[in-house]
# Entry
Amino acid sequence: MSFLWNLLKTAKKSKSVVGIDVGSSSLKVVQLRRENGAAILETYGELALAPYSGGEAGTATNLPADTIAASLKDLLKEASITTEDAGISIPFSRSLLTLVTLPKRDDANEQKTIIELEARKYIPVPVSEVQLDWFILPEPLSEGAAPADKVRVLLVAVHNDELKLLESVILQSGLVASFYEIEIFSTIRSVVDEPVKPVLVLDIGASATKVYVVENGVVALSHNIPQGGQDVTRMIATANSLTVGKAEALKKKYGMNTVPGSYDPRTIETAFSRIFEEARRALTQYERTEQKTISTLILTGGGGVTKELGAFAKSIFSIDVRVADPFAKTQSPAFMHPVLKEIGPEFAVAVGLALRKLEEVEE
# Structure
């Protein structure tokens, strides 16, 4: 079973495809079709999950498969999704990514045996509890390429329980998923265009923030920060005596802008500063270890990429800061571009899944 390419090939061919991002606080869907070589945006949608468990929008959840499936069916209807052909995301929190250097063997079977044996050292749970996959990085990777007798291998492991949950969600939703993909790879596909130089991606989710370095299209470093958008929302709620739902709505509407009658943006600077400082440490560690320079930071994620956050990030990081714009890889009516650019960071995973699905149906 592969998480780096197709898992199953059971979906029927169709012109339209849908990418489904199952996040901790919300579901996102994006439907695309290919026309004259371009990815055409047909529809998209988002639905908060917390209300399905009695919570308020913006907070992370841990719902059973039947509840997620019920909410997904609601979203598919509201967003007018017309295709069953889907690709679905695997949460980073339910997976393991690690880059290791192992002995190189010319014989493919021998190399496979070495990788499977060594993988046990890096997986913190019994191998029987996960699905394991790997990818051998091409040589030369860069200036820091492994010696000739070594290979660099990206190990990928996903909990069996997570796969069972997603399979149940898809079955109950009436969809056909031809692959499941760890959300990091979907995001890379939709927001990272730099082919060679290392890029730092800061993916701010609801409950956590993912930090990863992408080099030559491959994850060269990954790190998880246990703070995310819901922590920012709670700060707004506490400081202004608001409900979490109201604070989330204000955060999405105003972000870090100073608007009379909303809230003081300095309230949330503390939360973002903590996230950024830890991300800076990861950046510095990578640069020192690999002897390479990261020149670009991409902000993405549905949990906390608020208005003017890019400008605030530029005051913390001494590198180029960009806000993800995944819809730029699709075509849509011009009047929609401002809205799509604003909400883009929330839909990076769903767009990346749909783009991969388009490649699959064209094979």
About this structure: The chain is about 35% helix and 25% strand. The longest helix spans residues 266-290.
